[in-house]
Amino acid sequence: MNVFLTLWFFILSFFSATLAMADGDNEQQAPQPAEHQSIITLDSKIQQSSGIETITLKPAHHQAEFIAYGKAISVQPLLALQHRYRIALTEHKRASARLIQAEQAGKRLQDLYQDGVTAKRNLQEQQAQWQSDKAQLDAIQYQSQSIIDETLLNWGNVLSDWTLSLHSDKLNAFLSGKKTLLQITLAGNRQLADNNLTIYVDPSGNRSKAQAAELVSTAPQTDAANQGSSYFFQTGNSNIKTGMNISAWIPEQQSLPGVIIPKSALIWFMDQASVYIKTGSDTFSRRSVNDYSAYADGYFISDTVKPGEQIVTTGGQMLLSEELREQIPDED
Predict the structure, then answer these.
(1) Same domain for 221 and 275?
(2) Alpha-carbon separation of residue 229 from 66, 183, 185 (angstroms)
(3) Model confidence pLDDT, tens digit, residues 244-254
(4) H/E segment holding residue 256
(5) CA geometry: angle at 180 spanning 243 and 168, to 5°?
């Protein structure tokens, strides 16, 4: 009998513990109430006298950005290659002219020798001169090709064409200071989008001051310290000088849907960015904004607020003060 009671007590204890655990799980899985958002009520007269202004948000698309780094580089190596190449071309013309003269002189002596007018030794000397001129021309051609190969290896097709083409004036903008050449290296897991020809750069790392830079070409060699893909860009940003380190903001391949809000719409309270939404003719509600990106004269937001909603652009701080005032308990 005692054994039976003990067993029965054990079974009851087991099921009681199981039910308690189930109740605990249900409590953990129960949805939490949404964060309380105060509703501020102001009639139209108070809104007008307080200078509260709103706009209706329109849909927008924005390409998210990632940051990369690089440097403003000198075009002096390109100018040196250009100088060497043009000297080689000049020497090539001279050597070609000498070879033509030697060939013509050789033909004349060949005719004279066949007519018995000149000695064979003179013909042989002229043939030796032709061989010497031909070897010199071949050496100059080899030198010219070596300069082309060196330029391609270090700078790629586009900058090589700008440097070595006789009628190209592309380097003049860099010489005059109107443009600066940049080399930007991406992180190892990043790539420049195929249709992305423009990025934004600034030497101080300030996105709001960044200016556009246009793609020149892919760099054939990358930064040894970064191991990522490297690209040449050109910029007309007068604040960027040769030798400066550069921060670059590069658009992602896909754009995000969202809205653009004015800078004045974003307010701060306890290190949290927020906006006020007009939820009715006389009511306003504050929403926290956790993710936003600088965009022109405002911010891009992909969540929190939606197109068609009315956002407060002027008077947000006044609404915040009113919200905080209403939270102060009345004193008896």
Answers:
(1) no
(2) 14, 10, 6
(3) 999 999 988 77
(4) strand 245-262
(5) 130
Q: How far apart are CA 57 and CA 44, in angstroms?
A: 21
Instruction: Give the Cα separation of 102 and 123 in Å (integer).
Output: 11
Q: Are residues 277 and 313 in the same domain?
A: yes
Sorted by sequence, the CB contacts under 8 Å of residue 153 that are 6+ apart come out as 220, 221
- pLDDT at 262 exceeding the cut of 70: yes
Do residues 159 and 165 touch, judged by C-beta distance below 8 A? no
User: How far apart (Å, rounded) are the C-alpha atoms in residues 230 and 211?
Assistant: 19
Which has more pLDDT, 131 or 182? 182
Boundary-marking domain end, from 209, 236, 255: 255
pTM of the entire structure? 0.64
The residues, ordered by sequence, that sit 6+ positions from 244 with a Cβ below 8 Å of its Cβ are 71, 72, 203
Are 164 and 156 in contact, with CB atoms under 8 Å apart?
A: no
Number of domains within the chain: 3
**Residue 216 Cα distances to 88, 162, 182, 196, angstroms:** 27, 11, 9, 11
Which amino acid is residue 267, in one-letter code? I
pLDDT digits (tens, 9 = 90+) for 274-322: 999 999 999 999 999 988 887 777 899 988 899 999 999 999 999 999 8
Same domain, 307 and 297: yes
Residue type, 322: E
Which 3 state secondary structure label does DSSP give 32? coil
Q: Which domain holds residue 302?
A: 39-62+257-326
